[in-house]
Design brief:
single chain, transcription, alpha/beta, two-stranded antiparallel ribbon, LysR_HTH_N, DNA binding, LysR_subst-bd, Arc Repressor Mutant, subunit A, 3 domains, WH-like_DNA-bd_sf, D-Maltodextrin-Binding Protein, domain 2, seven-stranded mixed beta sheet
Length: 299
Amino acid sequence: MELHQLRYFVAVAEERSFTRAAARLFLAQPSLSVQIRKLEQDVGARLFERTGRNLVLTAAGEVLLQHAVRALAEIERGRERVDEVTGLRGGRVSVGVLPSIGAYLLPAVLATFRRAHPAVTVQLVEHDVSREFERMVRDGELDLAMTRLPTSLPGLGCETLVREPLVLLVPPGHPLRGRPDGVWLRELADEDFVGMRPGYGLRELADRLCAEAGFAPRHILETGQLSIVHGMVRAGMGVALLPRLAAGSDGHGGHDPADIVAVRDPATYRELGVVWRESALTSAPVAAFLDVLRCTAST
């Protein structure tokens, strides 16, 4: 059974005449008759019968007509939706985002994209673990993700968006608070730390940088929520080594600017970027979102 045969069948059923249906379809009547016979062979039943000069549907033809009309309508609707997506008059983009990025970089991206493409829906998924985002992009659960680089899974496209310095978050009254020339990591060897649990990208980054400075940080509290890290630092439980965005250096997070101390060691930064499946870029909405993301991050 082929699509054009269903179209021919519906035309004959509506016209109740091979002659009129052939004229409507711009076909020779013998060609139309051949296609209807092939369709009857495929379904294993006669679809039309003549009663005098009238052409009427058989019981099998009545049943097939209902399904053929619905199928053709769905196919036409599918074509319309494809036109909407390729013309950015509709469609959807699913984006994964780390919470520390979502609160700061993403609002400007979404506002710009919304103004340019108001008919495209953006679905956001938040997660704290970069490797999980990579898996979701690879497996098609997300179109792209804004996450920490470098990536660990092969076969994904990636691009750096921003290189973000790490800072030290200290409690009110801490001796290092407000130090204008910043702090060297080796000075923190005797400090109590609060931070993310092992397995989180921020924890791995902090542990690696401290190890390079010659010590292992003494974590007295581990959590899976950045908001708890902020609260514990404010309560005087310890210090935290965080990227600037995650530390709330732009006023988010509830800390006084003096509580956020620069780190002087070289290469104390994290790279934030976007990862995607190459096949996802065949979608016009996904490609457009990536373009807006690049432009916003570069300004």
